[in-house]
């Protein structure tokens, strides 16, 4: 994996087995380069790689990218903040306001089917067929994994992340 740039609104380029990272500042040339790359998917991360003070700016950058996205075979995924956070609600509000949707929404800290169902319901009412990827990061989510996996027809996949504490 190659990493370059800062941390306000990174864009991960995923090739079949390689991931890269683009700088956070909105720069049309860099986004065009991402679209023209051999990547299969570009992931815009608004969650862990963005500090709380930079989240509003990261949303603006993501909205600029989504609204200026050229027609391309490159798939776009947007990793928003968890639905049980103020930042997650703001991320979803930004998407609904800008009306430009990614191909996928990655929802970290998914702890119940309701998290995916809320996102699915709102984006479907807005006319989008965006697919959802739930990330389970807690025991609460793990205990609800079956209902999360069956939450909505738009749920593409559910990933379980394990954190290692103390070494």
Based on the model shown, name its key terms.
6 helices, 167 residues, single chain, TIM Barrel, alpha/beta, seven-stranded mixed β-sheet
Summarize the SSE layout with pairings.
Blueprint: E1 11-14, E2 19-22, H1 28-36, E3 41-45, H2 55-68, E4 75-79, H3 86-98, E5 104-107, H4 113-125, E6 131-136, H5 139-143, H6 145-149, E7 155-160
Parallel strand pairs: 3-4, 4-5, 5-6, 6-7
Antiparallel strand pairs: 1-2, 1-3
Describe the structure.
The protein is of the alpha/beta class. The chain has a single domain, classed as Phosphoenolpyruvate-binding domains (TIM Barrel). Helix content is 35%, strand content 20%. The chain has helices at 28-36, 55-68, 86-98, 113-125, 139-143, 145-149; strands at 11-14, 19-22, 41-45, 75-79, 104-107, 131-136, 155-160. α2 packs parallel to α3 (86-98). The longest helix has 14 residues, at 55-68. The radius of gyration is 15 Å and the shape is globular. The two termini are 23 Å apart. Mean pLDDT is 78; it is low at 1-23.
- Gross morphology: globular
Tell me the major beta sheet: 7 strands, mixed
* Whole-number total of structural domains: 1
Span between N and C termini?
Answer: 23 Å
Counted by DSSP, the helix tally is: 6
Amount of helix = 25-40%
Oligomer: single chain
Task: Determine the strand fraction and express it as a percent band.
Answer: 15-25%
Spatial strand sequence of the major β-sheet: 2-1-3-4-5-6-7
**H-E order:** EEHEHEHEHEHHE
- Mean pLDDT across every amino acid position: 78
By helix and strand content, what is the structural category? alpha/beta
CATH superfamily: Phosphoenolpyruvate-binding domains
The CATH architecture comes to Alpha-Beta Barrel
Radius of gyration: 15 Å
Question: Which CATH class?
Answer: Alpha Beta
């Amino acid at each position: 994996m190659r990493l370059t740039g800062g941390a306000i609104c990174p864009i991960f380029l995923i090739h079949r087995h390689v991931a890269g990272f683009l700088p956070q500042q909105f720069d049309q040339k860099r986004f065009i380069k991402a679209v023209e790359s051999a990547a299969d998917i570009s992931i815009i991360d608004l969650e862990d790689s963005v500090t709380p003070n930079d989240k509003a700016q990261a949303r603006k950058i993501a909205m600029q990218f989504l609204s200026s996205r050229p027609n391309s075979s490159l798939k776009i995924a947007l990793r928003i903040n968890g639905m049980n956070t103020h930042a997650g609600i703001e991320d979803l509000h930004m998407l609904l306001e800008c009306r430009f949707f990614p191909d996928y929404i990655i929802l970290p800290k998914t702890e119940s089917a309701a998290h995916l169902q809320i996102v699915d319901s709102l984006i479907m009412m807005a006319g989008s067929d965006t697919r959802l990827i739930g990330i389970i990061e807690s025991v609460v989510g793990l205990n609800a994994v079956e209902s999360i996996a069956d939450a909505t027809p738009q749920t593409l996949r559910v990933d379980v992340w394990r954190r290692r504490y103390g070494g």
